TrEMBL record:
<protein>
    <recommendedName>
        <fullName>Triosephosphate isomerase</fullName>
        <ecNumber>5.3.1.1</ecNumber>
    </recommendedName>
</protein>
<dbReference type="GO" id="GO:0006094">
    <property type="term" value="P:gluconeogenesis"/>
</dbReference>
<keyword id="KW-0413">Isomerase</keyword>
<feature type="active site" description="Electrophile">
    <location>
        <position position="105"/>
    </location>
</feature>
<comment type="subunit">
    <text>Homodimer.</text>
</comment>
<dbReference type="GO" id="GO:0004807">
    <property type="term" value="F:triose-phosphate isomerase activity"/>
</dbReference>
<keyword id="KW-0324">Glycolysis</keyword>
<comment type="pathway">
    <text>Carbohydrate metabolism; erythritol degradation.</text>
</comment>
<dbReference type="GO" id="GO:0006096">
    <property type="term" value="P:glycolytic process"/>
</dbReference>
<keyword id="KW-0963">Cytoplasm</keyword>
<dbReference type="GO" id="GO:0019563">
    <property type="term" value="P:glycerol catabolic process"/>
</dbReference>
<dbReference type="InterPro" id="IPR035990">
    <property type="entry name" value="TIM_sf"/>
</dbReference>
<keyword id="KW-0312">Gluconeogenesis</keyword>
<dbReference type="Pfam" id="PF00121">
    <property type="entry name" value="TIM"/>
</dbReference>
<dbReference type="GO" id="GO:0046166">
    <property type="term" value="P:glyceraldehyde-3-phosphate biosynthetic process"/>
</dbReference>
<dbReference type="InterPro" id="IPR013785">
    <property type="entry name" value="Aldolase_TIM"/>
</dbReference>
<dbReference type="InterPro" id="IPR020861">
    <property type="entry name" value="Triosephosphate_isomerase_AS"/>
</dbReference>
Length: 264
């Protein structure tokens, strides 16, 4: 029986107002308590900073094991404290119950000028605070069309991951985010195999399996075929995670597509 954990992660971005976010968290948590997904499936929801505390309380009310349903933040600052107006540190999000943090999302690389070096500092800070980093990498459309995806991914892996990285990697081609377009199964399989082949340059030992997820326009319609690709360890979901039923449908599809096969 397969015991490799699979992940469904919801990235709410800056999109749910306070009450909507808390209700969304409650709806997801209650549905998962009533119909628990299989234990190999780990669900993580990542609200904006302002909702971390409330969402954490909502998740605690249902008493699900944190492997089953946990909370993450969408960013953290590289330093643990100091005169950094407007920033939020990894220990601060840990205090509010975050177990994960998304780092290096393309929207932060693009809108905040985050470089691989900055992301690596954040990975270090998160790890030191006991938070699992979810690092996003992915090429732009022009880079893909010019045949430069492999070198972009290689540079991002080498630059943004720490040596001995312990976390999750999410392959999110920038052209697939919010576009309604997903890579073909064949392209996704090829890219994920490439990423797996590149990973050992940042890992100290061979026996660590870094979960590699796919993100970009995932809905419950594409989730089964994406999750059935062997190299895919889960999905990072943006807009389809903002509505409880569509997110629960993705969790259901992921559970079905990755159900351990009984040995013959
Ligand atoms: P999307 O976003 O599912 O809305 O394309 C995914 C992401 O940016 O993580």
């Amino acid at each position: 029986m397969s015991t490799v954990p699979k992940f469904v992660i919801g990235n709410w971005k800056m999109q749910a107002r306070h009450e909507h976010g808390l209700q969304l968290a409650r709806d997801i948590a209650h549905a998962m308590r009533d119909t628990p997904p299989p234990s190999h499936l780990h669900t993580i929801i990542c609200p904006p900073f302002t909702q971390l505390d409330g969402v954490h309380q909502a998740l605690r009310e249902v008493c699900l094991p944190h492997e089953q349903l946990a909370m993450g933040a969408q960013d953290c600052y590289p330093a643990s404290s100091g005169p950094f107006t407007g920033d939020i540190s990894a220990p601060m999000i840990r205090d509010l119950g975050a177990r994960y943090v998304i780092l290096g999302h393309s929207e932060r690389r693009q809108n905040h000028g985050e470089t691989d070096a900055i992301i690596r500092q954040k990975v270090k800070a998160a790890t030191a605070a006991g938070i699992t980093p979810i690092v996003c990498i992915g090429e732009h459309l022009a880079e893909r069309n010019e045949g430069r995806a492999a070198s972009v991914l290689s540079t991002q892996i080498e630059g943004s991951l720490t040596r001995g990285f312990r976390g999750i990697l999410a392959y999110e081609p920038v052209w697939a985010i919010g576009s309604g377009i997903t890579p073909s199964q064949e392209e996704l399989q090829r890219k994920l195999q490439l990423i797996r082949a590149l990973l050992p340059m940042r890992l100290m030992t061979d026996d660590i399996r870094v979960p590699v997820l796919y993100g970009g326009s995932v809905t419950s319609v594409q989730a089964p075929s994406i999750m059935s690709i062997e190299a895919v360890d889960g999905v990072l979901v943006g807009s389809a995670s903002l509505e409880a039923q569509s997110f629960l449908d993705i969790i259901g599809a992921a559970a079905e597509a990755t159900a351990p096969q009984p040995s013959p």
